[in-house]
Specification:
The protein has about 775 residues and is of the alpha/beta class. Helix content is about 55%, strand content about 20%. The chain is built from 26 helices and 22 strands. The strands form 4 sheets. An 8-stranded mixed β-barrel has the order 13-14-16-17-18-19-20-21, surrounded by 4 helices. A 5-stranded antiparallel beta sheet has the order 4-3-7-6-5. The longest helix is centred in the first third of the chain and has 31 residues, at about 210-240.
Length: about 775
Amino acid sequence: MQKLYIAWNAISIIALIFFTYFAAKKKTRLSPLVAAMCALAAFCILTYLAQFFTCNERLALTLCALHYIGELFIMFIIFVFVISMAEISKPLTKPSISTCVLYAVAFIDAASLIANIWTRHALSLSPVFYADGTFNYWDRNFYWPIYLNLALQIIMCLKIVAALLTRTFKLPNFYRNKFITISALFTLVIVLSSVYYFNAFKFEFSILLYLPLAAYAFQIAFWGINAALLNTMISLVSENISHAVACFANRGECFYLNREARSIFGVGVTGRATAEGYRNKLKNQYPEKMFNFLTLTQTMQVGTITRTFDCEYRILRDAKKREVVSYIKLVDTTEELARLEQEKFRSEHDPVTNLFNRSAFFTRASEILRACKDIDFYLIATNIMDFKLVNNLFGEQVGDEVLRLQAASFSTLNQNMTAFGRISGDKFAALVPKEAFDPKTFLQNNNIIQQAVEKYHYKLQNYIGVYEISDKFENVKFMYDKAAMTIDSIRGDMENTLAFYDTSLMDKQIHDKRIISEFDEALASGQFVMFLQPQIDAATNKILGAEALARWISPEHGVIPPIDFVPVLEKSGMIHKLDHYMWEQAAKKLADWKEKGIDLYISINISAKDFYYCDLYSLLTGLVEKYKINPQRLNIEITETVLMQDINAHRAILQKLRSYGFTIEMDDFGSGYSSLNTLKNVEMNTLKIDMGFLRASNVSQRIKDIILSIISMSKTLGMKVITEGVETKDQVDFLKEANCDIFQGFYFSKPIPVDEFEKKLCEGGGN
């Protein structure tokens, strides 16, 4: 019996060493645990078995201590292996207090067992001999400290059993069978170990199960779970995959349809027969040489719904290129294609009107023009005047309704050869065949958009620019720019709201762009020159001062009149640069005159942009201080139109300038809309009347009465009166009788260079 026992344990040691070696080579997550478990099991068997071959009591006690310590460590490792095997335990962070206590007690127990080699306080050995007096084995005598080791083993056994039972009932059936088996083996080890402790048996039979227990742990850790898990995974994945999969034997018989495939082809024999028919149809449509691996997109009728699938057919072959099995995979792309179509629509269309957006319209218009080479087209641009006011006054909801009505008005022209788009804001574009274009229809569309604001009694005006396309390969963006440019030529005209493009508009745009591009360099190089137009005292005919006017003398283009560049600079927002330059020139000239003893003033002009692009007060007072001139000699002219754009803010600035000493003049009074309310709210020093309406061949007494009233009112308000545009002696005589203070106009002098002005001054001035 003893020889058989020793032989089995020797075989177990060799097998466990083998398991340890291969577990360490596996390099998996469980490898260290399985390797440590097998190595400790071999160590425990070896230390126990060695006791049968030693007669030295101290060596036997040493082997006993190592055996008990090894068993304790095995239990710790088995516990970690159990909770790690299915990966359902929480990640280990800081150990709990109970775990720390358990480690401490285990350390004390190990120290006690080591000390027992010399003290024999926990365990003593008594030799047992055969009848012939030869040594047989060591009989063990237990004392109370050994029960600390026993208690630790019982606690670890309970923890392991609890962990096994918990995972047995918590985990899926796939894992459950594995845990039931390992639980049974471990329970048997516990029972046999307990029998050995509480009965005086010669052999510890529990260690006989170390090898089967380690072998089973090795098998489920590296082979059993992986192989079974792979088969289970394949089955579950193929059944629950979101794509349809149909598998066929080498002769074409369908032997498997997953859930999605059954929803397409049907269930049972009928479903498999339908799948076989679909496969045969594919095989008949495509050559055999292309049929080993085939991908295509097809539509299929599934019930009452037409669905689109990406179809993949593949034949799987063995090492000798023989067909083993084939499968069809169908990926439903119906919703994906619908989503892509929606995204494409959203990317190409305006969300408010559902018309093409800017880029999509230009692309679609280009396609139509390239395809219809024998048809003549118009590119039409529309723009709603002051549309921003609709949003501000009535809200964006009403504004959006206007835009939708504008888009709906195009529906009457909807043909295959037309394209409509919202370019930006309230700007729309249309590509229409020339024969389908009716100006009356477009003009009547204004009544459609008027419906949105009809209840507010607000008048909408839609302007239309039409460009006749002569070169279909021209960039459509340029075509639209030309149509939009046409709108600029009629903007503000309440009667004429539709215009056709002509080349003069392009010439004007080119001219404007040239002005803008050359302006900065011209200003820096001194091409802008200050001209002065004298202002004459009505009583003495002497020069009192002059108005500063800019002239552009270009080396390339000669003298450029103000009418050619001032409107362009105002529109582009660059006029403030020229104004600043002219103010500086006027201040310099006043300083020069001051040194020469010439006591005249110069009037400078202020535009609307000057209030927004600079600190007007600081800039003008800075010029006075820089050149040490009298502010009363630098008069400031401002038109009522500029003043009315933000009367409260502008009035405050002008009042500060007036308090500083500047003379403030209201320019062009009578040339347009004039408000007595402005004169009431803004204190002015001088009123400047435009005499343009006196140039008529037949000046009525009514017009003269108006002039007399204006001059009389100005005197009452304490303002001087300057009349500009004086061109005839009759006008001079009339204005003298009307008590006008100062004259300015061609009758006395046109605007002249500064040196000519000074020469005229030396000659006595006047006419």
